[in-house]
Amino acid sequence: MTLMENERSMLSGAWLGHEILGEIVETACYLINRSPSLRLDDKTPHDIWTGKKPSLSNLMVFGCDAYVHVPKEKITKLDSKSER
Fold first, then answer.
1. Which candidate, 26, 22, 32, places its Cα nearest to that of 2?
2. Is the pLDDT of residue 66 over 80?
């Protein structure tokens, strides 16, 4: 139930299609495992399982714009070096 609620929330907030439901469920599970829980005395499931605090440095807004680097061979001098 919690996964489905998170999935529904991410889908509506990011305006994404249903074709990426698998990735959304994986993301929701990843976030739940790294979120503090009152039942675990404000520790995360990741904390309990591994004995270490989880790194949150790789988190970003779900559904945010992404840019890919364009190789030098495919652009001219004044072209942008990345594409959305």
1. 32
2. no
* CA 37 to centroid of chain Cα atoms: 20
Residue that has been written with the tokens 């039942």 in this structure: 39
DSSP 54: P
- Give the chain's mean pLDDT: 83
Q: Domain boundaries in the chain?
A: 2-83
15: Cα within 13 Å, side-chain hemisphere: 2
Confidence category of residue 63, pLDDT binned at 50, 70, 90:
low
Retrieve residue 2's tokens: 């919690």
Angstrom distance (rounded) from CA 29 to CA 6 = 9
